[in-house]
Design goal:
The protein has helices at 18-33, 46-56, 89-96, 107-118, 140-154, and strands at residues 7-11, 37-40, 60-65, 79-82, 99-102, 123-125, 134-136. By secondary structure, the chain is of the alpha/beta class. The chain is globular. The mean pLDDT is 96.
Length: 155
């Protein structure tokens, strides 16, 4: 791999409960602590909680927004990139991560997992997706270990 920073796309739902919010925050914190770049859809829910965690750990965040206005980004996004392509941006979120972490979500998250598999990106399943081609983890410790292993393979 070249000198570019390693990116991790965090995907998941926008309408989440407190448990998923805490999970996403902790995942983002791990990414920031590892000095990786967090990529997400830039809006609310999992995207905002993960970005908040990454920022609290000193990390850099990128949000690929569905619309045309940078102001739509959540307050924890460092680099807001308006795509103007709506849900089609899910393909960009999946393609932008060297590794994908899938948290609980719905159809949008499912599409991102599918795109990631098509693009050959490793997908860590921390959301109970049980989708062919994903790497299932059940704890934050397992997630961090698997992420470290995948990152080592990229370098």
């Amino acid at each position: 791999m070249n000198s570019q920073k390693i990116t991790v796309s965090v995907i998941g739902g926008h309408d989440i409960n407190d448990e998923v919010e805490e999970l996403a925050h902790n995942v983002g914190f791990i990414i920031g602590k590892m000095e990786l770049v967090l990529v997400c859809g830039g809006l609310s829910g999992v995207m905002e909680a993960a970005a908040r965690g990454a920022k609290e750990a000193g990390g850099l965040t990128i949000g690929l927004l569905p619309g045309k206005d940078k102001a739509d980004a959540n307050p924890y996004i460092d680099i807001a990139l308006p795509t103007t392509i709506g849900y089609a941006r899910n393909a960009m979120v999946a393609a932008s991560g060297d590794v994908i972490i899938a948290l609980p979500g719905s159809f949008g998250t499912s599409s991102e997992i599918s795109y990631a598999n098509v693009y050959g990106r490793p997908v860590i399943d921390f959301g109970g997706w049980d989708v062919l081609g994903t790497i299932k983890v059940e704890t934050l410790k397992e997630l961090e270990e698997k992420l470290q292993e995948l990152i080592k393979d990229l370098c």
